[in-house]
Amino acid sequence: MSRAPAQLPLGVGLRDDATFESFLPAGNATLLDRLSRQLDEDGEPFLFLWGASGSGRSHLLQAACHAASDRDLRALYLPLHDLGHFPPLMLEDVERLDLVAIDDVDDVIGRRRWEEGLFHAFNRLRDAGKRLVMSASAAPRQLPVALPDLASRLTWGVTFQLQRLDDSERLQALQLRARIRGMQLSEEVARYILHRGPRRLDELFDELAVLDRASLSAQRKLTIPFVKQALGW
Domain residues for 171? Predict the structure, then answer.
């Protein structure tokens, strides 16, 4: 993370490959544009992203934090799926940051202390003129929020639903991620991986990382026989 205050120790490290450049826009081009410009002077103060698990929500929130760091700004990434079992103390003093990215907010909805913590953090960020981006598996109005004031705040921002990639776009996304890793992934091999591999893109990308390490170690090109051997297919 980029110079987060010492009072905020629970921020989670970012994946190096979670950048805007490694995300295929496809049907999410408008969302990607708004999110990449959120830290501009005329950027949106609050963005809310929602979509199914594996749709790229976490990738984009981490990418936003990477982009803030690249601009020498302070950002904090909070995946509540991992941190929601803690009390919401990590929300204190967030207005000292330039961007706060809160992932999986639906994991704490319905819990009084967390809802109150989110409500007050939202207000402090707004009053300080800072930026906030949240994600969940459902749209704000579909979340069973118990605190009416928080329910109201969640609808204040610009909301985007992440659009799923079709099979052709999934192929492009896999090849894009391979190029960024410096891998030569032919369309034939990419189609084989898509056919045999997991359905979720994040899991496919994890398989790609395994192949990258295996090919470097063995000094082998990515062929279908090598993919079978390296992944145990």
Answer: 167-231
Long-range CB pairs of 182-191 (<8 Å, 24+ gap) are: 183/208, 183/211, 183/212, 183/215, 183/222, 184/221, 184/222, 185/222, 186/222, 188/224, 189/222, 189/223, 189/224, 189/227
What integer pLDDT is reported at residue 12 of this predicted model?
67
Asked if residue 120 is part of any domain, the answer here is yes
Contact 181, 208 (CB under 8 A): yes
Decide which of 128, 161, 194 is a domain's last residue: 161
Quickly state the pLDDT bin for 53 (edges 50, 70, 90).
Answer: confident
Please give the full DSSP string across 158-189, using - where no structure is assigned: EEEEPPPP-HHHHHHHHHHHHHHTT----HHH
pLDDT at 87 over 50: yes
pTM (predicted TM-score): 0.89
* Tokens matching residue 94: 């967030």
Q: Show which of 131, 161, 191 is a domain's final residue.
A: 161
Q: Measure CA 122 to chain center.
A: 19
* Locus of tokens 């118990």: 146
Contact by Cβ (8 Å): 132, 100: yes
Return the H-helix or E-strand segment holding 123.
helix 112-128
Domain membership of residue 112 (yes or no) is yes
Please answer whether residues 158 and 166 qualify as being in contact, where contact means their C-beta atoms are separated by less than 8 angstroms: no
Cβ atoms of 43 and 37 closer than 8 Å: yes
Terminal-residue alpha carbon distance, the chain: 37
Q: Does any domain span residue 77? A: yes
